[in-house]
Design goal:
- Helix content is about 40%, strand content about 30%.
- It is an alpha+beta fold and about 140 residues long.
- The protein has one domain: 2-Layer Sandwich (Alpha-Beta Plaits).
- β2 and β3 form a beta hairpin.
Length: about 140
Amino acid sequence: MNKIMGDVDCRVRNSAVANPNSALEKFCMICTAVPDERTAETIAEKIVENHLAACASIFPVKSVFRWKGKLEHASEFAVVLKTRTALVAECERELKKFHPYELPEIIRIPIGGNREFLKWIGEETAEHSQGRNKYNQGHP
């Protein structure tokens, strides 16, 4: 781990200690990449439908990575889910059900931002076990 990443991790941990109600501890994005748009849509639909995330963004990406000792290039689709940190483990389990890769990329990034948007994420994911959707009028 490089020094910059260590500093970022330290700041996130310190902010949580200083303010346990920090948005960085309550909300996050979960990012993954998949080989095709249909898989990306399936993952996004299943996770949002089950109220494990409030919404998902899907976009094409070019990836460069080392896999089994070989440099690889791939055209993929990124999926970015916005959710509550408390739901990360459940999101990860659900994501793995539909992810075709042997080693799926699953990255959690703490987020803050527009309070109304964060509140909406909380509301949309609060009732995930009952499967209720109070916001049937589209994205805010």
